Amino acid sequence: MYIEEIKSLFLKHRETNLFHRYITNKHIEPLLNNLGEYVVIETIGESVLNNPIYGLKIGTGNKRILMWSQMHGNESTTTKGLFDLLNTFLDKNVYSENILDTCTLYIIPILNPDGAEAYTRINANRVDLNRDAQNLSQPESKVLRRVFESFKPHFCYNLHGQRTIFGAGNTNKSATVSFLAPAQDEACTITPNRKIAMEVIGVMNETLQKIIPNQVGVYDDAFNLNCVGDTFQNENIPTILFEAGHYEDDYEREITRELIYISYISSLNYIANNSIMGNNYESYFKIPENEKCFHDVIIRNARVAVSHSNEKINDIAIQYQEKLIHDKIEFIPKIEKIEKLDDFYGHKEIDANGLKVFDINNQLVNINYENDFVIINNDKIALLSK
């Protein structure tokens, strides 16, 4: 399958009613009504606050793939990609028909509807569902477990979003998309089903490298049986973690959305057309591990006070805080560090050239300062990327 063909599919089938970062049941419910006779739609449970959790089944093939998104409510890019994928399946074409004839997909578009509505990682009981795989203390965790046991998947896609802090290795290349074949034991053994997951990840990486070279990473595979992916891998089901990350100036995650869609199509097409034994897993180890080496903005070479009488040249690190305001996600720049940041990169960098940096009240900026602007040499400098 050629890259340009997949891109054309995306442009044709992109779900225009879903955009930016705030995606809730309210946004997807009208779309569910339009999915037609080819998708079985079920209410598979309820959240802590009694919001419905939806399950979607499509395809007639023997290879079963379970996909769930927004386990963390504020990680919505993969959900947008799922509806782009569903639109592709509904429009009969050679690729969608091949996948659906060979595979059956069960999709949970929003596992944590309360967290999605509040735009938080956790659920309404303040529990991280991705640390509840063993206790199953939350209704949302129990829903996923029931589907896993009844559907009996051959593959699991654990769909998430990652912060802007990650680089693909310790480089100035952002980890725009990251993957992981989770460990299934403390020794992080390269087991047969991990090899299968690694092989599929290798195919997606090969595809993405043609579009975003050196911007794909892998997560640390430290084992934690409380995590859902580790649990399912531990039960010998090849499981793949997807992490939708940051592309330059794409804080709405619309470019990343396309890259996630391309990952879906390329991996599902590979699964549909191959008997995957894990023999081609080694390319996985060529993907660099994520490193926390980015800030949203770095102001370099700023003159800062270290005491009443001493000043020095330092860097200023700014991270955008995501805040839900009137049903929209706003980005608020906040100073997190004032120190030498030689080992870090900024998605946006400003050189203060040895000058002082002031807030809007003409006071020297300090840690925890929140505002869209700073003042350098009497110039008002915007911190938000446009």
TrEMBL record:
Cofactor: Zn(2+)
Keyword Hydrolase: yes
Family recorded in the similarity comment: Belongs to the peptidase M14 family.
Keyword Magnesium tagged: no
Stretches assigned to the Peptidase M14 domain: 18-247
Pfam families reported in the protein's UniProt record: Peptidase_M14
Keywords recorded for this protein, A-Z: Hydrolase, Metalloprotease, Protease, Zinc
Protein's name in the database: M14 family metallopeptidase
Species this protein is from: Flavivirga spongiicola
